[in-house]
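If you are new to this repository, start here. Below is one unmodified record pulled from the training split, so you can see the exact layout before writing a loader.
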Amino acid sequence: MGYVAERYAPRRTPFFNALLLFVLIAVSVPALHAQQYASIRGIILDAESGQPVPDTYLFLHPKGEPGEGRQESVGEDGTFLFSRLQPGHYVLSISHTGYKMQIMEVPLPVTEERDVIMYLQPRTYETAPVVVTGTHRHSRIEAGDERMFVLHGRELEKELGLTLAATLKNETGIAMRAMGPAPARPVIRGLGGDRVVLSEDGSRTTDLSATSPDHAVTIEPFAVERIEVIRGPQVLTRAAGTLGGIVNVVRHEIPQERHDNIIGALGVYGESANGGLLASVYGEAPLEPLMLRAEVTRRSAGDVRTPEGMLGNSSAHSLDYSFGGSHIFGHGYAGASYREYSLAYGVPGGFVGAHPRGVDIELERRQINLRGMYAIDASLLHDIRFHFKRAWYRHKEFEASGLIGSEFRIVSYAGDVRAIHHAFGPVTDGIVGIDLEHRDFNVGGYVFTVPSTSTMIAPYIFERLRIGRLSAEAAMRYTWNRVVPVEEKPDARIGHIRERRFDALSLSATLRYALTDIVHVGVNVSRSNRMPTVEELYSEGPHLAAYSYEVGNPELDMERGTGLEAFLYHRFDHLSFNVNVFHNELTSFITPRNTGDLNYATFLPIYVTEGVPAIFSGAEAQVEWDVLPTVRLDASLSYTHGSFSDDGSPLPQIPPLKGGLGATARVGAWRVGVEAIMAARQDRVDTYEEMTAGYVILNASMQYSFATGKQVHNMSLVVDNMTNRAYRNHLSRVKAILPEAGINARVTYKLYFDF
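And here is the target side for that same chain:
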């Protein structure tokens, strides 16, 4: 099983460590007289306070026999002991009303005593679960082991911005593509569009944000539990391309755990640079035999103030709400939910690649989800999980006169069924599943892209294994995709518009070797594929908000790529670092390129979609150092070099060298931090692309938490760009007329309640 660990572990004094050791030894004395058996002894601790968690319920049963087992209740000191156990493989369930339920597997060889220290995460605080055996230092650098970066808890609250991309923009290896504040999307290692898959609770998000820089993402980040950035073989369980990655937001929209209390959170948020305000509330409540959940978030933001003036037509107003429920039973759960997200925002005008007077866009997504899990816990099969959704998406672009210039509509049906299996031989766990989607794409206004349908079927397998110091992850995915236009056009100006079929086998493997207990090296090799989208195949006509005349290519082949990555990570008790070096080659990198010509009927610049060979290479590094028990320093650096393979000329929209240096002090319930975000000059640019200068901006943050009974209050104050520096994001099209936002104070308050 894989678990996501919290970023910081509770601090324990030498006295507490000695006391903990004494308690564990005292509990184990009775077991010393029964060495012919195995035993499990341990202590349950609160992940935030480090204090024992009393009255925790434990249930231990042999693996594959969930109905036969032993139960214990933890006392006031948080300790427990299961003695006189036959050697074998056991499953331990841990539950407490105020904490996330946890399940862990415990192998017990002959006559072994297994010592376990377990950290439980309070439901009302940082809701990502934590299960740790032994002593472990939680760090931002957990990705070296799991190929995944996780942003959650107070760190997520500190980074929260207007969009998902703004929330992630300062993370290592991640940049933000934007055409104003609202239409922004994450870019990973220079790769954007649908090479970076956005998902919610593991299901791909239905919108058009991957197809054009003026299209916004339909995810509100404020109320999510955590944000995961996933790379490596795990990506193939959700997408055919591994070179970019997956950004997954977790909110558990359909409840998966039973509890007796009403729990949830409410919060408010404001920022000064755009006069933005937000209010949000979500809650879960038991209504036997169901668990119910509801959520609503309302956001309003005005035009952005920059050091050089106001960015006109950059406001955004959104409403996001959902409700759902599930039936949770002994071996699993089944439930449903409904979510509706609406957003109205402006795209600024007055620069090359934008409508001169700007454009107003309104979009809406409605989605129904069905999700469930059934735990079989047989000799090999652990559980079966399923998810099905129906999504309706509509997007309108308005001219200054109020007329609709462009309109898009998508109706999508998607599903995923997967089986999780137990260990066998060197394999520790794995997934076998199938991914399905049918999408109906339609257009209106002055857009002349041919309406079409697409169908995708993709079986996949993912496995983890371990042999001594060597561990590995491997995945394989076969994807079949069929795109059918509603009308075949043999004589279309862009070529023969017709049905296209694509199929491909994607592979990825990561090998990791433990040189020591704290030094690990590894390599990832992948064969990645991406099918061209409907827009890339069949576009033919003006796109209002992007101020371009878009020409597709119905002859496009699949985008195929090979990737090689080497990494090293090192974890001392008070120092962690990782270094990644990567090289990705794509034989047919699909990209729209400015031809330099105008369509004289519309006087718009012509962008033609091409498939060209390209190379992306670069490196990332990240360091965390606890210089004092309460002070942490962190630094990061990331660089991507993108070129066309045929002549070595620069690829468009490649982020510059970026780095960060920060310090955080923790004093009681307070956290105070400062950081410098740096970017180098970017002068490796494609034809008709503008260069940008380097910059350094300074940010500061202050956070405070306190409890009133079982309720927890989190408050954050973050000041971005404290010196009001005028700087430009290279991946922003708005940079041609105005810089990024000036000094910006962001205030967040969240109350986590439990009644």
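Two things worth knowing about this chain: The chain has five helices and 42 strands. The CA atoms of residues 164 and 221 lie 6 Å apart.
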